[in-house]
Amino acid sequence: MILSQMKYGDYTWPHNPRVYEISYKRHIACHKVPFGLYVHQDMGRGQRIMRGEGEFCGKGAYEEFKKLATMFYSSEPKVLVHPLWQSARAWFVSLNLKQEPRHDYVSYDFEFWECYEGYETKALPVILPQPEDGGENEQQQRKTYVIKRGDTLWGVANSMGMTLSRLLELNPQVRNPNLCYPEDIIYLN
């Protein structure tokens, strides 16, 4: 199997890191039931965490590490493209040098945290389509779909008889078409 190269923002690894570890976590609360045992409550999933380690070898190894370290200083999350993991916006949380750097060899480890953009603090504009006859000033009633567990945007578009591109055009608030969560509202016209 040929794997694609790992990328973060505008940085592309010259060769993929040697070790990857991806952690998924779900938060569960346990409540005592009077005169009974207990009940669990699903509090939702936590962010995925990707850790790894790798080496830069050969001429310019330390310069390559410095390019990667520059990405750590970004003040916003960027898209992380992983060879096996789905692409997601993520924060570059840590980067560690594992030995004294040499000009031809650098060993490092890193950590990224997936970010959830469902809690944006700024309002995103929604542009409503204008009536086709041009004579009415009333705006059309927008048809919506509420995302259910297991839905994908591609599946919603397909079931509504439209392309994913058209669905994304109608929903400028969607920043990552790979991420949709139950109760998200998607516009269909």
Structure description:
The protein has 189 residues and is α+β, with helices and mostly antiparallel strands. Helix content is 14%, strand content 33%. The protein contains 3 helices and 11 strands, in the order ββββββαββββααβ. The strands form 3 sheets. It has a 7-stranded antiparallel sheet with strand order 2-1-7-8-9-6-3, covered by helices on one side. A two-stranded antiparallel sheet has the order 4-5. The chain has a two-stranded antiparallel sheet with strand order 10-11. The longest helix is centred in the middle third of the chain and has 12 residues, at 61-72. The protein starts with 6 loop residues before the first strand and ends with a strand. The model has no long low-confidence stretch (mean pLDDT 83).
Order of helices and strands: EEEEEEHEEEEHHE
CATH topology of the largest domain: Elongation Factor Tu (Ef-tu), domain 3
Most strands sheet? 7 strands, antiparallel
Q: Give the low-confidence spans.
A: none
| DSSP summary, beta strand count | 11
- Please identify the top-level CATH class of the largest domain: Mainly Beta
Strand order, main sheet: write it out: 2-1-7-8-9-6-3
CA radius of gyration:
22 Å
Oligomer: single chain
Number of distinct helices: 3
The coarse silhouette is flat
> Judging by the overall fold, what is the CATH architecture of the largest domain?
Beta Barrel
| Cα-to-Cα separation, first versus last residue | 41 Å
> How many domains make up the coordinates?
2
